[in-house]
Amino acid sequence: MAVVNKKGLLFVLILLAIIFPLIVPNQYYIHILTLAFIWTIAVYGLNLLSGYTGYLSLAHAGFFAIGAYSLGLLTVKVELNYWLAFMLSPIITCIIGVMIGLIALRTKEHFFAIYTLCVGYIIYLIIDKWDSLTGGVRGLIGIPAPADIGFISLSTPLSQYYFVFTILLLVIFTVYRIVHSLTGRSFTAIRNSEPLAQSLGISPMRNKLTSFVLSTFYAGLAGALYASFIRFIGPEIAYTTITFDLLTYMIVGGIGTLSGPLIGTLLIVWLSQNLQFLQDYRMLIFGPLLTLIIIFAPGGISGTFLQWRARRKEKQRINMTTMKKQA
After folding, report:
1. Which of 2, 213, 228, 295 has its CA 20 to 30 A from that of 303?
2. Torsion sign (Cα): 246, 294, 13, 27
3. Where does it live in the cell (predicted)?
4. Confidence of residue 8 (pLDDT cuts 50, 70, 90)
5. What angle do CA 198, 204, 206 make, to 5 degrees?
């Protein structure tokens, strides 16, 4: 019954996302929701590494920027076919991710977080200072929108909305398959106890590197979509504040849950848009909110709900057992 309910809820949410532009034909809201979907893809990558493997990467914005600049440079300067550039962008991000991961994953816990923070800042500096390649502070302009697929045009905001939404669904499906596979269970085992996982025959380094590279792949994919959607990118997309925004989305929604990245990103993006008049005090609002969530609901919205439901089921089971004994 629970599986049916989950599938029914998922179907309703997908249906709502499909009909939303038809019910609310406001270009601004479509633009914001499309952008939220792109950020969600990046958060799913971060959640796979931090939530399921237990390694907090603070270089995620840097990999997001690598994906965006890969697409921008390949289409604008190399003048490569859009779809070929789009496919190469996350692959390039993965290759760089492998090189960084081989060194970064030799460290653990807060040392890993500090190392990746430094890596993320170095990526930002390279983009900002390598003026001849990246355009420096001027950024890259003229990035093309997604090329048409046959008779399907992807040049309008509505078509781009459905295109990004389709990619998001594919990302959620692949993450779901990864998490529920033997590889995903190995990630969770490493998160719970790395020495115990190693004693069970799980290779920590290989699985951590796999998780790290998959995380960079989703970041690069999100970056490529962002560059296609905005069509102008600057070095600020690699700055550490973007990483902390992604962390906020993940923690609020629920770290280590499948629905958390989607819930957290959509909620925070919606709140940010409705509280634009308080933009100068953004950190004063979200800082204490994030602190309260970490203290009182470390599982985030999704994790707290799952814990409440598990306790409720356990209580019902105990009540039923007691009633049977009394009967």
Report:
1. 213
2. negative
3. Cell membrane
4. low
5. 135
